[in-house]
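Chapter summary example.
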Amino acid sequence: MSQLSAPTVIAFMVYVSIVLGIGFYAYVRTKSAGDYFLGGRQLSPAVSAISAGASDMSGWVLLGLPGYAYLAGLEAAWISIGLVIGVAANWLLMAKRLRIYSAQLDDAVTLPAYLQRRFADSTPWLKSIASVSILLFFLFYVGSGLIAGGKLFNEVFGFDYQIAVFVSVALILLYTLLGGFLAVSWTDVFQGILMLLALVTVPVLVMSQAGGAVEFAGRIDQQNPQLLNIFTSAEGQTLGWMTIISTMGWGLGYFGQPHILARFKAIRSPQDTGSAAAIGVFWALLCYMLAILVGLSGIAFLDQPLVDSEKVFIALTSLIFHPLVAGVLLAAILAAIMSTVDSQLLVCSASLAEDLYPLATKQELTAEKRLQVGRIAVVVLALLATILAMNPDSKVLDVVSYAWAGLGASLGPAILVSLYWRGMTAAGALAGVVTGGVTVVLWSGLEGGLFDLYALVPGFIFALLAIVVTSLISKSSLNPVVVKQFDQMHSQL
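The structure predicted for these 493 residues follows.
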């Protein structure tokens, strides 16, 4: 455990001051619920792309993914390949259409509201079940971020783990409550740049101390040559199709991540999505490659095996750098955590304030009341996620994988198909949301044989089948007004 040092504290305090300053400035700019939840749909392409990437990556890119690479070597690259493909597909297939359709459908701020208005669904089921799915799986996702924060403060400052979790959530709550979506997006850009700086600096310095890339690879080869083979496990066994599909299957999750899709809805213009896509894909490719290199750096540089592999970035930073520089780089972990947790809390609060609360109270809320309910919801959800994060033995990547699969399988197919198929019905959308979510929950509780396949893959496939079959069966209930509205939106592409 690292000792508390003045330079490290100074670096952290400077970082925290910048984040809170951005939050206060955004607070001044936030005038309505639309501003709070989507920033008035005025994000530039660069801010949209980088904030989407930063909110996606979370603490698992600096803790979970390097930890996986530290144990498994280049086997971990299959996750990165799948994720980069997923980022590209998400931007190319979803961004422009979702920006146009959500704005045209009475400025739908949340995904449940988009689905309800896309199909003119007069029942509460589609909207409420989609909202519940977001809340359920995001609680685990936010919990994973707080687990990462607890590990960070415990390792760097020696805080008790539970206290460290509370420190993390208190800081995130403060600026999220202040400025909402604008604060979240602007801080995500700052935090994303800090994350990239950290991911570049650590492996570059390790390689230079090793004597170059060849010597760096040689050190790993001495430890275990199988770690440098992308087609074998650390034990030397050839990777089977199930392992490769499971790891690459992570990319399917992008279609259903509300905190990422929110950036598509908030971008300034549909015409900006092309340039934003280029920035977003390059950003993802760079960050994921570097995260794998951090894990490999741990293999090459650390003499003693780590008890907790997910602390490889922290261990390398503490050993290699001056405390002031180490403080800046370790703040990048906090940046990664905060850039995701803040976005997720905001999406959850939007779903509660915009979707579930009006359904439960059976009354329309004023703009001021929606803003108030949204901020209260942020606090409540953060406290619930804190309870989930109280176990210090939890693995960040394990918790993220469950939440990622749940959101990707329940919402992803329904949103994707709704943007392309005019014959999709409300019943089909509901069947997809329910089938995808239930499959992930049940599949994740089983193991052995086919059930070792990552739950997102079967969940996504079954949800697609449910959407198509149910829509065809219920085609007679398809509202002609909905079809006409879809054609009108489609004509804007």
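To summarize the output: Residues 45 and 275 are 6 Å apart (CA to CA).
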